Amino acid sequence: MQHDTRYWSALACAALVAAFIAPPALAHSPYLLPNGFTLAGQDHVSVEAAFSEHVFVPAIAMQSDLFHVVGPDGASTPLKPVVLRDLTVLDVPTPAQGTYRISSGARQGRVAKAALIDGVWEFIDPRRPLPAGVAPVDMQSVTRAEAYVTRGAPTQAALAPTGKGIEYRAITHPDTIKAGKPAEFQVLFDGKPLAGADVEVEEAQAGDGENVRLPLIVSDAQGRFAITAPRAGLYFAMTRHRVAASGADPARSYTYALSYSVTE
Q1: Rounded to an integer, what distance in angstroms lies between the CA atom of residue 111 and that of residue 232?
Q2: What is the chain's Cα-based Rg?
Q3: 136 by DSSP, 3-state: which?
Q4: Are 236 and 89 in contact (CB under 8 A)?
Q5: CA 90 to chain centre
Q6: Most exposed residue of 11, 109, 184, 255, measured as fewest CB within 10 angstroms of its CB?
Q7: Burial class of residue 250, CB neighbours in 10 A (0-12, 13-18, 19+)
Q8: What would the pLDDT profile of 163-196 be if each residue is shown by its tens digit?
């Protein structure tokens, strides 16, 4: 299947509309958006990298020294970003047949105040009164955004987990997901299954419509979960995992985000 230029154009229009009507963002999600997920003979794919309050409408350009692509042979190659005002662009070579994993790498972001409130780590406003006995700590964000693209037939080497930080292990190949059929994944943290992890899923809407949020999914005891897309389109899945400080390591808020396409 060739690049879906009509859908890409619609999303670009959404970005222009949102630039004029969107309120100031309170929180942003990271994403990578290729201009095609299933390639025919193309020897490259262009990828948008950004943070946004409305996923796939860029608001803040993503910067990383760790952008890379894992090819069909499992080898990792660094990518050179072009950073614009609201988004970053990556030109990713796809010289061989097979599946490629495009990644921001594990970006270490800002440090902000957080507190453990009712058993849940929350970033807090320093002006907000905290419950008695709750002390704020410094927490650093660590984000990784990824997307898979396939030239020709899907292959498996690029799907291998890194074993570091938070990530999804794709059980169903991301470039073979069909509408109405469950796509299976496993949440891992440092290579081990992460049970009870929340998985937020959005279906992108063209134009100025709000994305459709699917019901919240929670990983099982083995870290596994399944997403059933109601229809073909562009989807975004994200999991956050926050951990307390340990020894010399600060508290950290980990985020993993996957963009993928669903076909009929």
Answers
A1: 38
A2: 18
A3: coil
A4: no
A5: 16
A6: 184
A7: middle
A8: 999 999 999 999 999 999 999 999 999 999 999 9
